Structure formats: C-alpha cells, structure tokens
Amino acid sequence: MKAKSAVSPPPHSGHRARLRARLEREPLAVEDHEILELLLGYALPRRDTKPLAKELLCRFGSIRGVLDARPDELVQTVGFGNGPAALWRLLREVMARYEDAPLRLREALASPEAVARMARQRLGNSPHEECWLALVDQGNHLLAWERLRRGNIDRVALQPREVLEMALLRRASGVILVHNHPGGSPSPSEPDMVLTQELQDLAPRMGIRFLDHLIITEGECYSILLRKRI
Question: How far apart are CA 123 and CA 87, in angstroms?
Fold first, then answer.
C-alpha cells in the first residue's frame, strides 16, 4: 500500500508569511500592492496574487479606489473571479455596518454629513438606484436605517405616501430620505425636486419632520434642502 503523500503548502506561503511579519512590525513599510496581495491571498490561497494586486491598483488608482469599485468593474480585471468577488462583498458589508454603528449606539445624527457618511458605504457603489430612509426620534437618535425601494440603473419609483407610512410604522419623529445616482452626478432631477417638495408639504400635516433628501454617488453627496454638496 502506498503511503499518502503529504499536502504541500501553498507555493507562496513563505512570501506571505514574511509580508505578514513586516506588517506586524512596521505597517507603514508595507506597500499598497502588498496589502492588497495579502488580502487577495485569503480568496486565492494557492495563487501568486501580486500581479492581480498591481493590476487593481493600476486600474483604480489606490486601495480606496479598489475597495470602492463596483462589482461589474472589478470582474473586468483578469484574475478577479468568484473568490475575490465574494471577499469584496464581505468587505463592503463590514464597512457598511461599521458606518451603521449609530443605529446600534443610538447616537444622534446631528448633521446631513453624518447621514451621508453612513449612506455612502451602503449605496456609493450600488449599480441600481435605491431609496433608503433614516428614521429618527425627537432627539434625532436613529431608530431605523432601511431600504424602502430598489429600482433599476437610472430610476426608482417612489411615492410620498410610502415614505410617510414607514415613518408612522416606526413611530419616527423625523425622516431623512436618501437615494443614489449610480455612476452619475449628485445633482437632483426634476422628479427628485417634486418628491422633495411634496414631502415638505405633507410631512408636517402628519406630525413628521422631513429633515432632508440626500443624493449619493460614489464620491459625493448632495443635500436638496441645503441646496449644496456636502
């Protein structure tokens, strides 16, 4: 009977071990492509991930650019298959939940910028338009942060009634409406302006404070009530 052959270690395990040791000793001494190389190694343990890491940096410019890239952009990079795509989805969800922390801590959302930070992680690279609501109590503590409607690449249909019904259901004192423009300008469209005006008119009659309507893109946010980018 032949003895079972030992399982050989991944061919690049020594190099990655050295990178991890350097990261532990002196994090700033590790290059950006090496950080990505280590990260990709969790999805591609038996592959040399240095070429893919360098290609991603070349294509998207920075680690932030790589992490913020849309799924359809990432999979166009040769070698970025199902394993890395699943890891990136997990990373995006971790970052989104990190920004969702005010919900768990019941912190006050004191400014549109606070909502924008939370929304950008959730919606910034979404390939579809989505409408989300930040519902707050009298002290502007977050009660709920949830998706109300998902549309297609350039439109999501929404009626003022749906926003106000959700606020009443959650017993919220105030509401901030958020939606994204995939890959486009944060400037509001005419339907965005009409919906905002209708909510401004209707919400006070129902005892609800309509606090803002924010438009999110990959890198920007526009406040319709403040009439400026934030």
Answer: 18
Residue of 117, 79, 85 lying closest to 221 (CA atoms): 117
The three-state secondary structure class of 48 is: coil
State residue 159 phi and psi, 5-degree precision.
-110, 145
105-229: in CATH 3.40.50.1370: no
DSSP 128-162: S-EEEEEEE-TT-BEEEEEEEEE--SS-----HHH
How far, in Å, are 80, 157, 202 from residue 198 at the CA level?
Answer: 45, 14, 6
Q: Dmax of the chain from CA atoms?
A: 84
CA distances from 208 to 73, 170, 223 (A): 40, 11, 19
Let me know if 166 is exposed, middle or buried by CB neighbors in 10 A (0-12, 13-18, 19+): middle
pLDDT less than 70: residues of the chain: 1-12, 101-110
Question: Can you give the residue ranges of every domain in the chain?
Answer: 13-96, 105-229
- Can you give the pLDDT at residue 36? 94
Q: Are 151 and 128 in contact (CB under 8 A)?
A: yes
Q: Is 4 exposed, middle or buried (0-12, 13-18, 19+ CB in 10 A)?
A: exposed
SS3 state at 197: helix
Give the list of residues 6+ apart from residue 19 with CB closer than 8 angstroms, or none. 30, 34, 37, 38
